[in-house]
Specification:
Elements lengths: L7 E4 L5 H12 L3 E6 L3 H13 L3 E6 L5 H15 L4 E4 L15 H29 L2 E6 L13 H21 L4 E8 L12 H9 L9 H11 L11 E4 L8
Parallel strand pairs: 1-2, 1-4, 2-3, 4-5, 5-6, 6-7
Helix pairs in contact: 1-2, 1-7, 3-4, 4-5
Amino acid sequence: MEDQVRRVAVVTGAARGIGRGIAERLAARGDRVVINYLTSKEAAEEAVAAITAAGGEAIAVGADVRNEEGAQALVAATVEAYGRVDALVCNANVGLAQGSVAEIPWETFSAKVNDELAAAFHPTRAVWQLMKDQGYGRIVYLAAEASKGPVGAEVVAHAAAKSALISYAKFAAREGAPNGVVANVVSPGLTRTDALGEAPPDWFAAFEKRIPAGRAAEPEDVAAMVAFFTSEEAGYIAGTVVSVNGGSDMTR
């Protein structure tokens, strides 16, 4: 690591799925990782145990990052444990809030958009001054390919929320870059996680057939891109949105 600094990475919503894959990837390269969770304490502790068993270093911190108090508590716990914050991965997600344009209630739609943005806004604000003072920071936001356009009639709230998140990330990138704080976006396509456990097998198989790579992404595929954006080498890349979709864009 540069100047022999062991980087410290905070990953929100990291107890399982993509978040856990990211945490394990960053720990494997030597980062000290903070696994944030909201309700999945047992799963978060299992993730910490797996990282520790593999020779890495991690702690689990429960906090609701959708509000200022939770985000500040998460960062305070990180600084207490490791003394710094070098990377923030905003992965915490909320439910898809399924419903079509004609049927989804405003309350459901607005709650999805609000929660999605709050889970990025508050952690970003909580680390912002720390990273500026260090003259170094990496922030990665997890979006979704649904933000590019209709991929299903029932995910309009999810798509709108992720589109707004991308806009927010670009403003963060513009303001942070002069101070060495670079922000980027990773946009996964269909990814095999517990969140899709209830999807009908025939639907999943049909979707996979439309992917040039011939399969859905695994959390490790997404984690690889996040690992790059949180690395030393990514210091000159800011406000970029990278798709991890197996080539699906080529079919649109």
